[in-house]
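Hi Y.,

Following your request, here is the sequence exactly as I used it, all 68 residues.
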Amino acid sequence: MWKLALGFVVFAALALFVIFKAGDSVDMSGEKHGADAVHAPEETKSAAAPAAPAADAPAAAPAAPAEK
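Below is the corresponding structure, written out as tokens. Let me know if you'd prefer a different format.
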């Protein structure tokens, strides 16, 4: 019985440690889909590598009509 109580205390201490280390950055709302989803990797990519100016970019060729 004392092993069960000790296991509970250790697990609770570990859980509290993780919660306090994470701070307020933990999102407990579950999976997000659609417009509510935040895609952090895309945001960090765009911040790390800024896009080239539009004047330096080549003009896009218009799409050719599909042949039948």
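Residues 2-22 form the longest helix (21 residues).

Thanks again,
Q.
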